[in-house]
Amino acid sequence: MAATPSGPKLRFCPESNDLLYPKEDRERKKLVFVCRNCGYQEDADPSNWCVYRNEIQHSHRERTVILQDVRADPTLPRTKDVHCPACNHNEAVFFSASTEEGMTLFFNCTSCGHRWRDYV
Known about the structure:
This protein has one helix and seven strands. Helix content is 8%, strand content 32%. The radius of gyration is 22 Å and the shape is elongated. A hairpin with a 4-residue loop joins strand 1 and strand 2. The strands form two sheets. Strands 4-5-6-7 form a four-stranded antiparallel β-sheet, with no helix packed on it. By secondary structure, the chain is mostly beta strands. It has two domains: 47 residues, Single Sheet (N-terminal domain of TfIIb); 60 residues, Single Sheet (N-terminal domain of TfIIb), CATH 2.20.25. Belongs to the archaeal rpoM/eukaryotic RPA12/RPB9/RPC11 RNA polymerase family. DNA-dependent RNA polymerase catalyzes the transcription of DNA into RNA using the four ribonucleoside triphosphates as substrates.
């Protein structure tokens, strides 16, 4: 079975045949793979920087629940440079997402909870 070109690949030490683990080389500001057994290391190929990717698929119902709770999320950015189309309040929580139309900014009014989009 052939490996998929888009997925991350496991790397092994040429000296001890142990698994190489990703590590940051802070001095050189590079990603390297290091053997925990013998200390061998090699620079990561920039085209292969994805160490782990977790893609979660949500149903339409789950997405609706996620969108309802965003205005109470303290980790999301807020802006006072927009006006809610429903109540004209000037503060909203926002986040971006890729949609079929391209990149989209989603806003959620912190006063009335109205949601709207801005296509970037």
